[in-house]
Amino acid sequence: MMEHEFDQTEPKMPRRARQRFSWRSLVLTGLISLFLGMTLTVGTFWIRLGANGLSVLQAMSVIRGHFVGDYEWNQVTDMVLDRMVESLGDRWSYYLSQEDYDHVMATRNNSYTGIGVTISRTQLDAIHIISVEKGSPAEDAGLQEGDAVTAVDGNPVNENNWNDAVEKIRGEPGTNVELTIMNAQGEERNVLVMRQEIYSNPVEYEMLEGNVGLLRLRNFYSGSSEAFTIGVQALLDAGAKEIVFDVRDNPGGYVKEMTAILDYLLPEGVIFISRDLEGGEQEYTSDASAVDVPFAVLVNGESYSAAEFFAAELQESAGAVIVGEPTSGKGYAQQLFPLKNGSAVGISTSRYFTGSGNSLIGVGIAPDVPLELNLEEYLLLLQGNLSPASDPQIQAAISALK
């Protein structure tokens, strides 16, 4: 007897029915995926932000959808983000508007668009010029230290519009700005200055009497380590037997630039330690090659972050003499997070320690040779007009080295 085989093939549906079934399946699958995605997104937001965080978003949505008055939405979001970071109570964390963020990033590249002047922020009746970059558009236009910009493109400068006036001077490279200048004698004139992309070398160096090299490092931003090594090598080639490093008013900068400089100067060993929120630790080390001359480092209350750790590590690892005033005591590192609207938040994300594990948080560096500049000397220093021979801190550093 012949056995019957079971037919395991399902009956075929008509083609149109199969097409309808496929589209329905795709739509249903898409809806399910969308629902699951939204659920996961809401769940993630809830876990990260909680009820309070979601309430902030809800309030912004209510304002956007229901408020009938006139307002600038950019100002609303700037204020919310600024106060949010401010409420952390961390003096080192900050918020940057889109305009400020663009300017900060240009500055951290040691370049900026402008006319090449350094201005005082203590007098707001005008834009007071305290120094002029060599070879800059400002120098070509005859601007000098002590001049004051009283109007920009015909608009008088005052305390209420001071920041806006400064931004107008920056402008776009290749464009002109008309400035009304008042000199120290009270005489006014109008000048037309073309804005340019200006590179600001963070390093200055010179040889002093007695085979002492002096190197001033303005920041630890992009290109600073390369400029630093070039400067130190030039001093050594010129016969420097001791080197004084000046990091007064140095705001700090990038870890990679600072550790590259320390690696170049110091012998083999741990030169820097970073610890994050989860307790993860990263050590930065130096190789065996080093610069084998005595060092002194000039610091003051405006020496921040990388500038402090630079001085502290040279003190620990090379016996450098620290001269000047106690530093600020910044031992937190900030990471800058760009936001969708072009702004950014800089948040303290790790703690820093010297190679031997010392923290500078809240204590800073106590100089080996404590010495303050008087007000007149400090203003001359800011203007770049305090000569080494007239600088008590430089002279004290030389004496300590000798």
Per-chain topology:
Layout: H1 15-66, H2 73-86, E1 94-96, H3 98-108, E2 111-114, E3 117-119, E4 127-132, H4 137-140, E5 148-152, E6 155-156, H5 162-170, E7 176-182, E8 188-194, E9 196-199, E10 203-208, E11 212-217, H6 224-237, E12 242-246, H7 255-265, E13 269-276, E14 281-286, E15 295-299, H8 306-318, E16 321-324, E17 332-338, E18 344-354, E19 369-370, H9 375-383, H10 392-401
Parallel strand pairs: 11-12, 12-15, 15-16, 16-19
Antiparallel strand pairs: 1-18, 2-9, 3-4, 4-5, 5-6, 5-7, 7-8, 10-11, 13-14, 13-18, 17-18
Helix pairs in contact: 6-7, 7-8
What do these coordinates show?
This protein has helices spanning 15-66, 73-86, 98-108, 137-140, 162-170, 224-237, 255-265, 306-318, 375-383, 392-401, and strands spanning 94-96, 111-114, 117-119, 127-132, 148-152, 155-156, 176-182, 188-194, 196-199, 203-208, 212-217, 242-246, 269-276, 281-286, 295-299, 321-324, 332-338, 344-354, 369-370. With 402 residues, the protein is an alpha+beta fold. It folds into 2 domains: 114-198, PDZ domain (Pdz3 Domain, Roll); 203-401, 2-enoyl-CoA Hydratase, Chain A, domain 1. Strand 5 (148-152) and strand 6 form a beta hairpin. The protein is globular.
